[in-house]
């Protein structure tokens, strides 16, 4: 019965993972649609909508710069430059200024920060679920993933701005989406195909098992006994003839 349990587990796994990938595809479509229809907001006073283009004016707090480790751009290795910005209303924003090439060096990167008032435009990304980090997230001035709590003083809104124009902008490394919805849909179909194969294997195995049981059920008990005792009985008969 081991194969029955195995097929059942594969069916359950395939169905569940297929549904998960299907939902991921739906979420990605909604997110991309929201990004495409996101408004341009100037000097927001509240939390922007996910994916909004926002324009903020203020000054960078260069002394609080941290670096997002292990970023790549066009095959080059580097970091993302993360700097708090205080806007004209006293609101604190976390700004990803862009990519800074470092190569394989683990030394603290050196980057200049514009002084005075700057006006920047960028894409707003909410602080959502991220992959788990194994080990310390903050090592020196390098972060393994963006975490606003790494700064002693908090920010006015839960998220950050990926700057793509304005003073202090560096080459843009961030893209709003990594895996398209179609890829998730393809994965869902693959998982459901696995579940279908497991279901077919279960049906075929069950039919064979039932056929074997029916065949055994049609065999009369005396036939089974005869098969088991046929040889000894014949030997006994011959022995009797000799004695006679």
Automatic annotation (TrEMBL):
Topology in membrane: Multi-pass membrane protein
Pfam families xref list: SURF1
Compartment(s) of residence: Cell membrane
Annotated Gene Ontology cellular component terms: plasma membrane
Protein name (record): SURF1-like protein
Keyword presence, Plastid: no
Regions crossing the membrane: 189-206
Similarity section: Belongs to the SURF1 family.
Organism: Halomonas cupida
Chain segments carrying region Disordered: 223-244
Main location, first listed in the record: membrane
